[in-house]
Amino acid sequence: EIPMAARAMGLEVLDIREEGEKWTIRIRR
Q: What is the DSSP letter of 2?
């Protein structure tokens, strides 16, 4: 599931890792 913040910003999420309650998102730039 992609965090709503990332989707709202229209970011292209390549890799998402859920660590505990913290999201680590890698985005292509």
A: -
pTM: predicted TM-score of the whole model, two decimal places: 0.25
Q: H-helix or E-strand containing 11? A: none
For 10-19, write each residue's pLDDT tens digit.
666 666 677 7
Number of structural domains, the chain? 1
Residues 6+ apart with CB under 8 A from 23: 3, 16, 17
Q: Supply the range of the domain harboring residue 10.
A: 1-29
* Distance separating alpha carbons of residues 18 and 1, to the nearest angstrom: 10
- Cβ atoms of residues 16 and 23 within 8 Å: yes
